[in-house]
Amino acid sequence: MPNTIETTFHVRYAETDQMGVVHHAAYIVWLEEGRSEWMRANGTSYAQFEKDGFMLAVSEVNIRYRQAAHYDQQVTIRCWTDEVRSRQVTMCYEVIDTENDTILAEASTKHICLNVNGQVTSMPEKWRQLLGEET
Amino acid sequence: MPNTIETTFHVRYAETDQMGVVHHAAYIVWLEEGRSEWMRANGTSYAQFEKDGFMLAVSEVNIRYRQAAHYDQQVTIRCWTDEVRSRQVTMCYEVIDTENDTILAEASTKHICLNVNGQVTSMPEKWRQLLGEET
Amino acid sequence: MPNTIETTFHVRYAETDQMGVVHHAAYIVWLEEGRSEWMRANGTSYAQFEKDGFMLAVSEVNIRYRQAAHYDQQVTIRCWTDEVRSRQVTMCYEVIDTENDTILAEASTKHICLNVNGQVTSMPEKWRQLLGEET
Amino acid sequence: MPNTIETTFHVRYAETDQMGVVHHAAYIVWLEEGRSEWMRANGTSYAQFEKDGFMLAVSEVNIRYRQAAHYDQQVTIRCWTDEVRSRQVTMCYEVIDTENDTILAEASTKHICLNVNGQVTSMPEKWRQLLGEET
């Protein structure tokens, strides 16, 4: 199964700010949508992860902005899993200008697995395999 | 106890859009913060309402925008309860330019009381009294 | 040309709140995206409207929430123009659960045409025709 | 003049997500509000920076989340300038639980100075001095 998943959508007007470009916090929401699509493209969903009694809390975000994104343009979020451990996973991203394939931003996020009580716990086996843990 | 409560804060940069003014959806969040402050000023909190096992779901929002708000200016949310029934409450608002007391927007919101299962239910007596139900 | 345009997307996780459902302000952003798609489906874009030297400022939003929307589900925004005048336009909306076609929310928004100086002005003829002004 | 500036506010309900805690993207907006307050506390404003014909575009965000923040609690953003160069500046932050002074998140952001045409340019002398450039 391919590890790199893409999702494409139009930039929303509400995501712009008075600089005339997309506000930097909007990208953080886009990364999350990239993760959601990664799950869907791999036959499940993060909603299912939570139904199974687990949560993936974000513990770290690192993002570099290369070029500004603009209202109405199409952007593509390219998302893949990087390091997968029993209790945490790192995801990587490129935010792409869909039309000309240039990179608008590069990012990584780290996530810790919590149970319903908010305690750090190991991810279930099926989720670790899905995410691509090396064995 | 006064029914009209005010809360004042600076407009955040993220709340602007490429028109150079505050995006209209940001006001909806401000109204909610006006409600939160209403609760706090009356000696409790909406957090307590949820701890008591109830939720106030928004069933309707009506808002008229009079003048644009701008980054960095101070805005005041003036909030009061209007019609209070056993299962629902209407709140009213003025969004004010703090410096010159002009009205930027006028709004009302309706809320339905739900229990933890998401079913419509009567508000507890103490909350109806707090909100000002006429008896 | 059909006046009613639909756009469909997944609910984003960031759009939920601690009630476990979509926060009511997120719908306001969805309506805007419905308007953006209306423009695109009619062969132009709101970006072009601004390039032409005009802005459509939101002067009023009225929305009724019927049922809660949830993370990861698909929602469809159905958008059509209602009353079109020289200086203002009213848009109507239904927010739909894509899977079973039930209505999650109904809304209308009013917009005033401004020039680049922020003054109320008549919409250009081509835009009034596009929006469907009756003559 | 002290370089570390604090600003305190209540967590907004809209900033929570269905995990029952503050969504990680909300912190990014808080950092920005910390920067805004830094400017105000130093006798000016970022609004003035833009009026002077410059913009500070965000080129990088790095944030580590230590503990979850919750609706209605008070959080304090502690913000200071780190490295100041002619064309860029690094800001650092701690997001604090106001009540017990524990750290909820630590972050840094990098900013590049642009002119009104979006070109990288040197910051005016008065702004470099304000930000604390070592000479």
**Percent in strands of chain A:** 35-45%
Largest sheet of chain A: 5 strands, antiparallel
Average pLDDT of chain A, rounded to a whole number, is 95
How many DSSP H or I helices of chain A? 3
Count of distinct strands of chain A: 5
Structural class of chain A: alpha+beta
Radius of gyration of chain A: 16 Å
Shape of chain A: elongated
- Compressed to H and E, one letter per element, the order of chain A equals EHHEEEEH
- In helices, the fraction of residues of chain A equals 10-25%
Oligomerization category of the chains in this entry: homotetramer
Strand order across the largest sheet of chain A: 1-3-4-5-2
Distance between the termini of chain A: 17 Å
Q: pLDDT under 50 segments of chain A (min length 5)?
A: none
Largest interface: chains, residues each = A-D, 20 and 20 residues
